[in-house]
Amino acid sequence: MQELCWRSRGAHWGCTELVTPGTAPLRYITLRAIRLGAGDRTWTWETGGEEAVLDILAGRCTVEIRAEPFDAEFTDIGGREHVFAGRPTMVYIPRGASVRVTAESSGFEGLVASAPARAVYPPAIVLPDEVEVRTVGKDNWQRTVVTGIGDNIQADRLMVGETVNPPGNWSSAPPHKHDAWSAGEVPMEEAYYYRLNPPQGFALQRVYTAPGDPDPFDVTYAVGDGDVVVIPRGYHPVVAGPGYQLLYVWVLAGDERRYGAWSDDPRHTWITGLKE
Questions:
Q1: What is the largest CA-CA distance in the chain?
Q2: Half-sphere exposure of 244 (CA within 13 A, CB side)
Q3: Percentages helix, strand, coil for the chain, rounded to the nearest 5?
Q4: Which residue, among 159, 126, 127, has the nearest Cα to 249 in the 3D structure?
Q5: Which residues sit opposite 159 in a β-bridge?
Q6: Contact 176/265 with Cβ under 8 angstroms?
């Protein structure tokens, strides 16, 4: 099995490529981190054959998009001080677009997820009060799931959101997977980008295949602030270290785009019947 974890190389001005289908066992997803302000104030790129989502992690920016037949400009958007200080602002960007991101604050940070697109959809913005926020689970597997780009936005493959775990709490519990065509499940690869509060913290990420898988694996990583784990297949529970708040940006992409099309590990679904 190929390596699934990519370690943070620290914060750099401009654009830092994190993972691509050429460097990770992925078919679709590319992740880039951008940091603008005192160093480089503007970043431009062409989406080519890919659609993209910009998740504003911290600070404010203006996004200009030129994509025939769609043009859009979203001015002075974002604003949370850091990822744990509020809900995200997300921008959907179609394929075939010329994009300019200009920092409007000295400490702008963003994450750009992209994937090949078969169709062109209009640019769109999802503001903090427009994201879907749900409390999921209970006890020490309760977390907050924020969906920014889901069924609310037209897109070809991408879905993007953020999940926040309190210290010591689990996500993807019961563990779930989305790697097969079956009742209620469709194949979608995923990538997690982690942030910790305080930033010297850690979380544990397990990725494992179902019993009987013809190419089985079972790996666990201690992940830190700015790390990425890719999930080409398998169940993928994650837990925040004691005392450390965990936020991870999750990015899903597949041939069919359907949020919630996954299946739980039947060995662990019994926890959903536990009484408060």
A1: 54
A2: 21
A3: 5, 50, 45
A4: 159
A5: 252
A6: yes
Please check whether residue 61 is in contact with residue 36, taking contact to mean a CB–CB distance below 8 angstroms: yes
Predicted local confidence at residue 12, as pLDDT: 80
- Specify the pLDDT at position 233: 97
Q: Which two tokens stand for residue 195?
A: 């942030």
Positions in the chain whose pLDDT score sits under 50: none
Amino acid at site 214: P
Tokens at 122, concatenated:
């209009």
- How far, CA to CA in Å, does 90 sit from each of 44, 78, 143, 206, 274? 17, 8, 21, 28, 36
Q: In the prediction, which pLDDT does 195 show? A: 98
CA 223, 77, 62, 30: dihedral to nearest 10 degrees?
30
- Which residues are CB-contacts of 138 (< 8 A; sequence separation ≥ 6)? 274, 276
Location of structure tokens 């297949």: 233
Judged by DSSP in three states, 140 sits in: helix
Q: Residue 249 is which amino acid?
A: V
Report whether 162 contacts 88 (CB < 8 A): yes
What is the four-CA torsion angle of 194, 196, 202, 208, rounded to 10 degrees?
Answer: -30
Q: Is the pTM of this model over 0.85?
A: yes
Each residue of 196-224: b (16+ CB within 10 Å) or e? bbeeebbbebbbbbbeeeeeeeeeebebb
Residue 56 to residues 69, 127, 207: CA-CA distances in angstroms? Answer: 25, 10, 27
Domain 11-273: what homologous superfamily? Answer: Jelly Rolls (2.60.120.10)
Q: Phi/psi at 140 (nearest 5 deg)?
A: -85, 15
What's the pLDDT at 40? 78
> Quick one: how far is CA 165 from the chain centroid?
14
Give φ, ψ of 97 to 5 degrees.
-110, 145
